[in-house]
């Protein structure tokens, strides 16, 4: 949408504490892979975090209302179908 910030990603290695800045998903993924290859010999370290700055649906009341309406319509359709 217009005016909303672009979704960006960052990677954090739990054991090392290495963290990237906010990057595109491809860039953050490439940095994660490079870190794994150079520091952890290609292994996947425990406690990795790969997160985005996208708005969580749980923090978006409009999205929650939309899903509640969809669930209500589905429930109503199921009840009507069961009666017939």
What topology emerges from the helices and strands here?
Blueprint (H helix, E strand, L loop, with lengths): L8 E5 L11 H15 L8 E5 L8 H23 L1
Antiparallel strand pairs: 1-2
Protein architecture, described:
It is a single chain. The chain is elongated and about 65 Å long. It has helices spanning 25-39, 61-83; strands at residues 9-13, 48-52. It has a two-stranded antiparallel sheet with strand order 1-2. 45% of the residues lie in helices and 12% in strands. The protein is of the alpha+beta class and 84 residues long. It is built from two helices and two strands. 5% of the residues are buried.
From the spread of the alpha carbons, the general shape counts as elongated
Largest sheet: 2 strands, antiparallel
Find the structural class using helix and strand composition: alpha+beta
The span between the termini is 43 Å
> Helical proportion?
40-55%
Keywords:
84 residues, alpha+beta
Short recap of the structure:
This protein is an alpha+beta fold and 84 residues long. It is built from two helices and two strands. It starts with 8 loop residues before the first strand and ends with a helix.
């Amino acid at each position: 949408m217009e005016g909303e910030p672009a979704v960006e990603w960052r990677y954090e290695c739990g054991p090392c504490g290495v963290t990237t800045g906010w990057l595109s998903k491809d860039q953050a993924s490439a940095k994660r892979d490079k870190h794994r290859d150079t520091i952890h010999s290609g292994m996947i370290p425990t406690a990795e975090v790969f997160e985005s700055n996208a708005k969580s649906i749980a923090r978006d009341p409009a999205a929650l209302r939309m899903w509640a309406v969809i669930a209500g319509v589905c429930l109503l359709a199921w009840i009507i179908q069961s009666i017939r």
